[in-house]
Amino acid sequence: DSSLWRSADKNRINMAFKGEDHLDSLSLPVQRMHLMQVDSVQRWMEDLKLMTDCECMCILQSKPISVDKEEQHELILSSQSSTCDHLQLLLKRAWIISTELSRIAQKLEKNRWHRVHSVTVRVNCHVHSMINEYHTLSRGSSREMHQLEKLLIDKCSEFTAFTERCLQTEDEEILKSMKSCVNETLTTVAQHFGQLIELVLTQETQTLLRQMELSGSLVITESAIRALFSLAQEGAHLCRIIAQEGGVVALFRICRQDCFRCLYPLTLRTLASICCVEEGMHQLEKVDGILFLADILTDTSHSEATHAEAAAVIAQITSPHLTFTQHLGSFLENMEEIVTALVKLCQEASSGEVFLLASAALANITFFDTMACEILLQLNAMKILLAACSDKHIVDTPYSRDQVVTILANMSVLDQCASEIIQGNGVQLLMEMLCEKPSSGSAAEIAACERVQQKSAVTLARLSRAPEVAEAAVKLSCIPRLIKLCRSPTERNNSDSVLVACLAALRRLAVMNPDGLEDSDFQQLVKPRLVDSFLLCTNMEESFV
């Protein structure tokens, strides 16, 4: 990971680059269940406190240690944490309960009744702990929440008693008949638990949004936005809750107040997270969000950080992965000024991250239609991007090169691009991208390198219809490199998409320069049908002994 990246945004950016077989680009934020992505020992250490709390709950049966009200009040204050920590604790406890419920289903399937009962007891304790923790740290709860809590606690107690009765019989037929009842009870517990968590998160979101709306304090507003951002990182479901409760509208309201100007980057970053779901996009459209983003990008009084985060929102709402496109009509109306501002941001970027966000937005926009590519051509974007690639402080990761080569690939459908590529030494850059290798063993970086190789081969194949580009590619030894990528699965990390792109590029160059290939390469990689060459290359490492 680049040292320039904000630690809070590493997962947001890294998770966006998933390996795809087509030309894709940055999709922010990455929605993820980060609890699953930490080292197992670290995971156990973090859970240890929760598990021991759970055992204490079993022994003390939810009774307070101290009867002295003043002393008890001091204990609560000393353990009180920030809103963000409070929500993370709640989500962590909810994740543990959800995992344990899944474990019960697995043990039940295998008829391991002792394990079913022991895990049921643990779930019962965790539920009590979660409810007590929430009441300790929250300002109160509604009548509906109290009803759901009672339903869940009662059903958990009933479930524990039921599984205990199952231990007292060894009759297979009786256990078989009880199994369906246990399954039904488990389903009911899971439903009540889901409803309670949904309500808790909805009420917490409402509280945060009220703080943002009513408080004129910079500190309180910032704390509320950070907590909202933390919630949005937990996945699409929480983003939907935030959007449905008016989170997008509230965040845009913050961005329209000069007194909160220093919070614009954080606010826009949170918006980018929420707008990964359709509900967030609908809210953005209602408040003319795209026009507002265009205003921010073109307003030179804003900081580079604000411009970069506005570019991140653009990258999110234009992601090719989104299945809903109703908002793109209003985007097209403002596309020219947005593209112009993004090109300028790429040209003036002071860090790799700023360039990454701006170029990712541009890469996504080029998927719309050729009009975006024509605008880029008029703005000399090709020259700017190629120049940026020579600066290792700006284009410093395969993720950034992925965005650049995506733009080049989409622009290469225009005939005018060939001369721009030649003038900017772009063929040399494409050759370097064909040699892209990961600096670490991370899956995200390996996938990014595969995409860089694939898209550079696609770009080369498209541009080689121009004789001058094909000639330059031959002089730079692109043909031997393409042959090596085809014949050596390790060079392309066993990627089929890279193989297909390289075969296509090789065939295009072979037409322009048939003398550049040895007879065996021609007979195996060019002359047969593409599918036959593909099968030959994918079977090269198989042993038939």
From TrEMBL:
Organism domain of life: Eukaryota
InterPro entries hit by this protein: ARM-like, ARM-type_fold, Armadillo, Insc_C, INSC_LBD, INSC_LBD_sf, Inscuteable
GO BP annotations listed: apical protein localization; asymmetric cell division; establishment of mitotic spindle orientation; regulation of asymmetric cell division
Ranges where the Protein inscuteable homologue C-terminal domain occurs: 93-545
CDD domains: INSC_LBD
Signal peptide: none
Domain Protein inscuteable homologue LGN-binding: 36-81
GO CC annotation: apical cortex
GO molecular function, one term: cytoskeletal anchor activity
Protein name as catalogued: INSC protein
Organism: Leucopsar rothschildi (Bali myna)
Phylogenetic lineage: Eukaryota, Metazoa, Chordata, Craniata, Vertebrata
